[in-house]
């Protein structure tokens, strides 16, 4: 049986109460630990089946951030032992290890990203990324004065979260509507965004609007930095698989009354888009910074070419 806390986490991810690729991965690992801790399975086979079910429930929430399947795979692959007690211990330990590694990777990445930010720089942000925030926070910790131009990021306005967290760091913030980005790009020194998935060719999948922002930034000569821990590398793209782009409900774009008033229209609400590697200057990870075209080397080293889905049916 899937534990109610796993169900609640899955619902929160689907509803975006828990959002952002790293935070989703962290919450999924925590939920698997709860499932393992609270399981009353009486045989090792029943325990494994339960863990698979829980992972499947978490997996089938949002399709684009690869950090989610990467987290589930990591935890399930650590499940070892011939007794329920041993399986429980190894699973919980593996989930805790995952969460600790994630936190450490983010602070390491922050220091790498901060190296690109000079005293007095202005950074333009899109959406809300904890990896991108880590770079600004590390720069501030190093005593640099940093200012931010924050895009509001329609339709969900995650820019408000970024603005609030930057103010907590005492960073001066100017909030702009998404359409104003091009107008202000001459006044900024970096575009800094996160990533939900990075493909083997160095393409960056991130919040809808990132690709257009990158085109504008190229036009203005503003460098584009992507902050993405290696958890965002999408191993299946090594074998040619495309990253699925989530389509969300049209009510996020237009409320039902206004829509009815407007008339017979179609509404599309893709949550993410793909920025080609030629529009990205650097991908900053906890393993250092990479030109997007060379990220494939790191992907092979860390994930190999076999991509398992241990949450799918069959013995775990
Ligand atoms: C969030 C988003 C973020 C990435 C990276 O989209 O696109 O840029 O997930 O975030 P949503 P982080 O709000 O739809 O989840 O660096 O925190 O992993």
Task: Provide an overview of this structure.
The protein is 44% helix and 12% strand. It is of the alpha/beta class and 316 residues long. The protein has a 7-stranded mixed sheet with strand order 3-2-1-4-7-9-10, sandwiched between helices. Strands 5-6-8 form a 3-stranded antiparallel sheet, with helices on one face. Helix 6 links the parallel strand 1 and strand 2. The radius of gyration is 20 Å and the shape is globular.
The overall pLDDT average reads 97
Give the number of helices. 11
> How large a portion of the residues is in β-strands, by DSSP E?
5-15%
Derived from helix and strand composition plus strand pairing, the structural class reads alpha/beta
CATH class annotation of the largest domain: Alpha Beta
Number of strands: 10
The shape is globular
CATH fold name of the largest domain? Rossmann fold
Largest sheet: 7 strands, mixed
- End-to-end distance: 16 Å
Percentage of residues in helical conformation: 40-55%
Main sheet: strand order:
3-2-1-4-7-9-10
Cα-atom radius of gyration: 20 Å
Which runs of at least 5 residues are low in confidence (pLDDT < 50)? none
Topology:
Layout: H1 4-14, H2 21-38, H3 44-59, H4 67-77, H5 84-114, E1 122-125, H6 130-141, E2 147-151, H7 159-168, E3 173-176, H8 181-184, E4 190-193, E5 197-198, E6 204-207, H9 210-220, E7 224-227, H10 256-262, E8 272-275, E9 282-285, E10 288-290, H11 295-303
Parallel strand pairs: 1-2, 1-4, 2-3, 4-7, 7-9
Antiparallel strand pairs: 5-6, 6-8, 9-10
Helix pairs in contact: 1-2, 1-3, 2-3, 2-4, 2-5, 3-4, 4-5, 5-6
Bound molecules: ribulose-1,5-diphosphate.
Ribulose-1,5-diphosphate binds at residues 19-23, 65, 127, 129-132, 158, 194-196, 206-207, 271.
